[in-house]
Amino acid sequence: MTTALSTATNVDATAVGTIAWLSSEVTSIVVPVYQRQYRWDIGGCEQLLADIRAVADADDAHTHFLASILSTKVSPADDELVLIDGQQRITTLMLLVAALQHTVRDTDAELAADLRRVLVRPDDPTRTKLRPHRAWADVFESVVLDRRSEDEATRASRFDDNYAFFRSQIRPDEVARIWRGLQRLEHVAITLGPDANAQQIFESLNSTGEPLRDHELIHNYVLMGLSHAEQLEIEQSFWVPIEENTGETIGEFWRHYLVMLTGREVTVAGGRGVYDAFRHEFPRLDISTLRHQAAQWKEYSEIYRVLLEPAHAADAGLGRQLGYLNTFGRSMYPLVMRAVHDHLHGALDRPALLQTLEFVQALLLRRRIVGMPIDRLVARLCRAREDGQEALWHAIARISPSDERVRVAVKFGELPHPSYVLGRLAGLDSLADIDVEHVFPLAPADTWSGDGVRTWAEYSDDEQNSHRALAGTLGNLTLLEERLAERAVDASFPEKRLLYARSRIPLTAALSERETWGTAAMAERTEELTARLVALWARPRVTAIDDDGLTPILDAVRRRGWPRGWEREYAYVEYRGEHWEVPDIKYLFNRVFKRLWADSRDAVLTYSARHGGPVYEGQAWNGQWDVLDETRSLYMGWDSRYMLTAVQGVLEEAGIASEVFLKYSYIGEAMR
Fold first, then answer.
1. How much is the pTM?
2. Which of 3, 72, 174, 389 has the fewest Cβ atoms surrounding its Cβ within 10 A?
3. Confidence of residue 37 (pLDDT cuts 50, 70, 90)
4. Can you spell out the DSSP letters for 111-125?
5. Distance CA 52, CA 60 (A)
6. Do residues 367 and 548 touch, judged by C-beta distance below 8 A?
7. CB 3 within 8 A of CB 187
8. Are 388 and 347 in contact (CB under 8 A)?
9. In a 10 Å sphere around its CB, with 0-12 CB exposed, 13-18 middle and 19+ buried, how is residue 135 labelled?
10. Under a CB-based contact definition with an 8 Å cutoff, are residues 100 and 115 in contact?
């Protein structure tokens, strides 16, 4: 079925069924020289296949819109179309149809013939209807027409990879279902006349100045397909309140919500990671499901508002702890959102909630003190939280640096977040009109003195260097009211003692009892305050393990490319206490599946059956394989990202994902 949308002298836009359009005897498409190479990866193919399955299972009125396909005719007398926009989608569809056709060509001649009409030119069965750029046309046609030679069996290309993915994901008894879904695809076919400005039209279709952000894509996705009345209902009852609660941080809210929901990191750099994760979690939202889900989103947005502005908390003690937590930014919001939600619903009592917030602060402060990163921690903690409060505290303890490491770092390093640390050590509820004071100034004048006898100019070079080295440490810092701090600037210690004695802050007033100030006094006070610090910011006493140099397998990230000359992604892998020397995900993929084939075969078969691979009976197509036994083979032709997903999934299926850790190599850490 086709519907003319508009007709002009140089532009013809028609809504068409995509498969009917491709199957037409007059359809012949060529990809021009200037088009980029085919770049869809397995993730894109996976999403397309999921969309096709969803529309196949819907009622007859449902279709799936593929947006527009822009082309121009070679000449008025020639039916061949030059593809300007849509190459990636059309190429992927052809690979999918080829996989279907090759699956049923020996068992269902009628269906195979219908599929073949999409692929092959009626006037020349040795040519495909889509002719890519000549640099890779032979590779594409050899895949679609299944005529690869033995020398090409292990060839690597995106065409081969994506075709193999489709072959692996579709069972023979599912081909008719996928074909039904394909026939419900629609697009707008835009054909330009010879005088049309193709580039101008392309830019107007694909660029509106600023690309849509993740939360805008989510908004469109949620409302698309609803009636006008339903759209108004969802917009006013749920979406507008979510926007009001989250403001400019709405994109961050959705990312944090999805991390909380999935227990996985959600990547935002270089793409639409948040939107893609949302679609994966909510693949089909009818109005009843949407109302239920949107009510939850709204509730979590209300919690998010309290996290952003703790003064809005009805519980003053909770608000104070959330204010403390904001010292470290928002990285722990996914975990805290869930904890507050559980508390509001009676699943977590107030003491446990406040203790959790204290432990999270201790984790973050301790890691900052010893110079360890605090990002990429929250997903693993969200996963642990699903197993209960004790499991969460155990997970926090595993990645919290020990008291000994903290003491060493505090003794010689600059104190992070000094206002927060000193304020809590001093027991202050507010730091209004309070300054951080360096007892020994960062830039002392020549007349400064620590004892009222010798001036700074009389100190030796070694003495001066020793003082400077400790200037930012805990022992040399205190808090002082602004009115007193203004007078303490550049003052020698004997003068400061008099000012400290007038302070209402006990932590500072105690300094007035000291007669001199120097490196020995700094070190002594650091030791005293460090004992209070490790007690106040205590880590849970449930384990002595400190594995913060390792990354849990479920938190491993898909690599985003490598500089030439570097080939080692991992330094090693810890597999249930075993030390494995595996350089990258391909080796790890092979070793994990082979090990589980021996130790947990049912888990491998269950995972592979649910996901359509990577274990198959025999070697069903040409490619890279490894033999598991006389009846099963492991397909090794996935790209690295899909391999990582498969490793994570099969380890979860086997119930041992929490016992597998990665140690990134130097370059692997840099490329994360």
1. 0.69
2. 3
3. confident
4. HHHHHHHHHEETTEE
5. 13
6. yes
7. no
8. no
9. exposed
10. yes
